[in-house]
Here is the input.
Amino acid sequence: MNPVLPTEAIEFAATAAKAFAALGGVDAARRAEEEPARREGEVTAALAAIGAGDLDPRANPDSLAAAAALCETAGTVALPFPLVGTLLRDSQQRPFAVVPEGLWRVDHGDLFPQWRVASLTGGDTIAAANAAPLGSRLGPFVTDLHALDRPTGDPRPLDATPHPDLAIHLTLTAWHILGTTGRALELAVEHVQGRVQFGKPIAAFQSVQFQLADCSVALAGLRELACFTLWRLTAAPDDALTDALALRLHAIDVARTVLRTTQQLHGAAGVCDEYDICVLIRLVQPALRLPWGAERTTEALAEAIARHGFEGLFPHGLASR
Amino acid sequence: MDFDLGEQAATLRTRLRALIATAIPEDYLGAFTNDPADLDVAQQFCQRLAHEGLLTIAWPTRYGGGGGSMWDQTVVREEMWAHHEPRGAQYMGLNWVGPAIMAYGTEAQKQQHLSAIAAGTVIWCQGFSEPDAGSDLASLTTRASVDGDGYRISGQKIWTSYAGMAQWCVLAARVGSGERHEGITMFLLPMDAPGITVRPIRSMLGYHHLNEVFFDDVAVGPDAVLGGVGEGWAVIRQALAHERVGIARYARCERLLSALGAALAPHWHDLPASLQGQWAKALVQVRVARLLAYRTVHAQATGEVPDVLASSARIAVTQCDQAVAEVLCQAVEERALEAGPTAPLYGAIEDHWRYAQAATVASGTIEVQRMIVAKALLGPRA
Here is the structure.
């Protein structure tokens, strides 16, 4: 029993953190919003410099752990790049995306001429961008794709075999969410220690302390689940999708609570782009809502558990009855 | 990374489940009911565990224990709690009174108490909390006045589990007029000593769980002191260290979800979709609580002092207990109000809901745990 991320993964994440800090941290995301074309140049160069291109999370548990640590680090700065997708690129360098059944909407979908996409119910389709990114405040880089080899939204039977990269994609995206959420808590801790009201830092108020404590506990749990899920992807590949859905659901739930709390603790500053918390919260929204938000993920997880069970101390699901 | 507890733990789990299946009735809801037969089940089960060398599996071999690893202890904790703690009140003697006597006791105290605890024949209660000393335990006012070479103890304890059935009490009292941790001394005293009165507190938890204990000029000899006069806080810290990981509440949550899931399986898809979703979330929450508990055990096993981890785990585990209690009740709808052998899962759901309400208070309130976590985040000056 060893629940700790391998040292190599932790060291790789530290290297990545330095590289992202050299880009300006969250400022890289701010610049990308001003000039979307900058994403391709400076971010790809930084990733290449740390050797991210050599990682294949499908290859072995160590690569998977390193990829997860990298995604977490990217989440801490809202790295403006489809990192999870490119880590799962195919032999023709096409990134991989998980898409909703209807509209194929992918964050940073405009950055590559072609994508390999799959939905929860199967599929492995080549797709390309329809148009420019949305450019909205919550999804500045979100781009709609269309199929190059079949009609968009082609319904697949529910029993279709999930794409082999689907569970890894969901898992790495959860690590990205973990990174953003963890950073949000750090920012809130810094803010409440520096912000003085009623003659003392607001950190001195127990209501503030308890909210931060609850966020910390939620994040600690998410981190353990994220590590556990990495291990399960290799140790129990038959359960990979169920485990990845469980992680995604928990990541969304924790993120919603922690991001809301940490933004609130920033007061009005929490909604200003000048503050990192605001940019992080805006730019993590695609990861929380694509390919599906909390409700659809819950539905999918409930169905997966009913069909395939759920690892634990006792049997679950209908198949074991 | 490896989350497998290992072959030894798996074998132990299988062995414990086989024993439970043969020795514990299916409708067993713990030793502390109004039916003396339930206490008998626990006492007999403890002796069976003792006979098989499993009761003290976590104790060091030099004290007759099995020298089991922390993961062995974890498995025992999980399986016992999952099956309504069929050791009854014994877990307290096993988990911390025995180890505290090993660490702080005289040879005579070890001789007198350890073999009885190891045999599963004696019940201990813990006299810590007082009406005005709950989370702030160091403010306790129960006094031990020097009387010749012994002491006379007067004061009141409260929330004392099993006091009505215990033969022995490990009691925290203050010697001298010190404040806070000063003068706090631990005593081992028999519950049949003259001057001790136990008054049960009627509560939603059920029988024998909560009691008041009054000490009226109770005379004890110098040999009743555990660990030296004024050194009681160190013993309490040792006790709390043993309780760090806390009760494996997640294990019972998971067993009940599993059992009720099986009972509902034929009509599963007729359940409201929202309930199926809550059920899935509950399973994830149980998994997270278990992983946080494992993280704490791992830290302890590798020599870390896992105070913050332990507090985080306790918050997650106790909140999980209450959340699962609610999901189980929602699933059985109006039958959640039924108790007794004809109720869903023989009354285990109703029992679980009642018991879970105290989860965030027992052995240290969730607020105290939050204070510990917040202090770690913000530093001691906050």
About this structure: The first strand of chain A starts at residue 96 and ends at 98.
